[in-house]
Design brief:
heterodimer, A: about 290 residues, mainly alpha, MetI-like fold, two-stranded antiparallel sheet, globular, B: about 250 residues, alpha/beta, Rossmann fold, six-stranded mixed sheet, 10 helices, 10 strands, binds adenosine-5'-triphosphate, binds magnesium ion
């Protein structure tokens, strides 16, 4: 009896520790980022960093403007949203409302597989198929563009958006649909006039989480967006994202140099952006539950 | 002439027979109650009249159901939509859409392209007036319908059903989620509505059937045991089983 109590106690504390650890890690990561990044802001003002138009970290004197990188990230992300959100919502509707049960299972398994493909592999596939195709289709000097990145990232965001949207659609009370059908609505009318309204908070949250994934994605973007740190004007130009910059340059910097610290400063910016996005998604998810 | 006529109606859920040879004639502009113990097929019968059973997989029907002399069981898709315009339904749990009060009422109009935008205001007002909600809600037509009280929601659902000008309104235990006062007021409303609509109400509650209905059908295990004037059913039932049920000798 006593032993049981002790075991219970230990298990309880262990679980508690696991929970605390996850929070602790996040705090530690952020603290580390801050520590490394802060010394950068002693030298370069925050405004100049965010608003600077040129990213020449190793020229003399160096220029640390990440505006082109931020715009690059935003452009690729925006494109990915345009590519993935309508498709994902349509897919979620198809899966939850239209597809026969067998098809449903096949599709769900397929979507999980899509989520499991490593981004390097997707990036590689994009590089050998999509990139040459875009170059040819739009008569460009190079197929490594923001648009190519958007398509690949859109593909990567789709599993998240589809599965969470589908949950939201499934959570819509059946009585809404029945009420609509009883009034003579077709299945399609019931969906877009009623069900989508009821599921909207969940769909928005799904989209936000998908965006969160896209913004943080590195490997595939680095491989197919061309990595030119210039302010982009169209989707059909090479761009460079925040994440790709960190990944590409971290290996080449001297530990402790300004360049080194600047990459941590970029990390802080990324952290803040993803945090805001996830936080917003959370708000919508909770609103949905109420 | 009967508004709704069923002839040897049988219905199966897969292999389970839920309706057995139902023959019934519902008269126009009267309230018809369907009573019977739980699981006897009341909802199933009601859902035949607007073909909501079509949504359930494995449902098979045999026999005829005529509304205004037209067999409704054979209609194609567009006839189904027309049928549901003609036969409105109010559910057991009030189920207004998570939209504004206004949007709820014009939903059917939009779906059937029944009216022009300019007429919506008038129709909303009339529909809300006929369920006695207009005075309470006229200043918050654009607030979410889910904020209303349970009784108001059920009234709104009735308003939503009659906004498309149906002939028949089906009600499946419309008061079972409401308190006694609300129930009394909804019953009052039903008597009011009977001037314009043919109403069929399914109820567990025999007192309710006795209070509001003109005709009553008693069902047992998928059969319509007896169908007659409400007065007669409750005072001089012909069938022993009906008598047992209304005197409370059945579960
Ligand atoms: N979708 C279905 N699949 C299989 N059987 C069903 C289905 N719906 C109802 N049934 C069965 O058909 C019979 C009649 O059901 P129905 O819902 O019409 O009864 P009811 O008289 O409305 O009961 P209650 O008073 O509980 O609402 C029941 O035995 C029920 O188990
Ligand atoms: Mg029922």
């Amino acid at each position: 009896m006593k032993l049981r109590k002790i075991i219970e106690f230990i298990i309880e504390k262990l679980i508690f520790l696991c929970g605390v650890a996850s929070i602790l890690f996040v705090i530690l990561i952020f603290a580390f980022l801050l520590k490394e990044g802060i010394s950068f802001f002693k030298e370069v003002s925050f405004g100049k960093f965010i608003g600077g138009r040129y990213w020449y970290p190793i020229s003399e004197p160096p220029q640390f403007g990440i505006l082109p990188l931020i715009l690059g990230s935003l452009l690729v992300t925006l494109g990915a949203i345009i590519v993935s959100v309508p498709l994902s919502i349509a897919a979620a509707f198809y899966i939850s409302e239209v597809a026969p049960i067998k098809m449903k299972d096949i599709l769900k398994a397929g979507i999980e597989m899509l989520a499991a493909i490593p981004s390097v592999v997707l990036g590689f596939i994009g590089m050998v198929t999509l990139v040459p195709w875009i170059k040819k289709a739009f008569h460009l000097p190079t197929g490594l563009t923001a648009f190519s990145g958007s398509i690949m990232l859109g593909l990567m965001a789709m599993p998240t958006i589809i599965s969470i949207s589908e949950d939201a659609i499934n959570a819509v009370p059946k009585s809404y649909k029945e009420g609509a059908l009883a009034l003579g609505a077709t299945r399609w009318q019931a969906m877009y006039r009623v069900v989508i309204h009821a599921a909207m908070p969940g769909i928005i949250a799904a989209t936000m989480l998908g965006i969160g994934r896209v913004i943080g994605e590195t490997m595939a973007v680095m491989m197919i967006t061309g990595n030119a740190a210039v302010i982009p004007h169209t989707f059909l130009q090479p761009v460079r994202t925040l994440t790709a910059t960190i990944a590409a340059e971290m290996g080449e910097t001297v530990h402790g140099s300004m360049h080194y610290y600047s990459l941590f400063a970029i990390g802080i910016i990324l952290f803040v952006i993803t945090f805001i996005i996830n936080f917003t998604a959370d708000i919508f998810l909770h609103r949905n539950r109420k | 002439m009967a508004k709704i006529l069923t002839k040897n109606l049988n219905l199966w859920y897969g292999t389970f027979q839920a309706l057995i040879n139902v023959n019934m004639a519902v008269q126009e502009k009267r309230i018809t109650a369907i009573i019977g113990p739980s699981g006897c097929g009341k909802s199933t019968l009601l859902r035949v009249f607007n073909r909501m059973n079509d949504l359930i997989e494995g449902v098979r029907t045999k026999g005829k159901v005529e509304i205004d002399n037209q067999n409704i069981l054979e209609g194609d898709f567009s006839e189904l939509v027309q049928l549901r315009k003609k036969v409105g339904m109010v559910f057991q749990r009030p189920n207004p859409f998570p939209l504004s009060i206004y949007e709820n009422i014009i939903f059917g109009l939009k779906v059937h392209h029944l009216a022009k935008k300019e007429e919506f205001d008038r129709i909303v007002e009339r529909a809300l007036e006929s369920v006695l909600l207009w005075d309470d809600l006229k200043d918050k037509l654009h607030s979410n319908a889910l904020r209303l009280s349970l009784e108001q929601r059920q009234r709104l659902c009735i308003a939503r059903a009659i906004a498309v000008a149906p002939d028949i309104v089906l009600m499946d235990e419309p008061c079972s989620a409401l308190d006694p006062q609300s129930t009394a007021r909804i019953e009052e409303l039903m008597r009011e509505l009977k001037k314009d609509y043919t109403i069929i109400i399914v109820t567990h509650n025999m007192q309710q059937a006795a209070r509001v209905s003109d005709d009553t059908g008693f069902m047992l295990l998928g059969e319509l045991v007896e169908f007659d004037n409400t007065d007669k059913i409750f005072t001089r039932p012909q069938d022993k089983r009906t008598e047992d049920y209304i005197t409370g000798r059945y579960g």
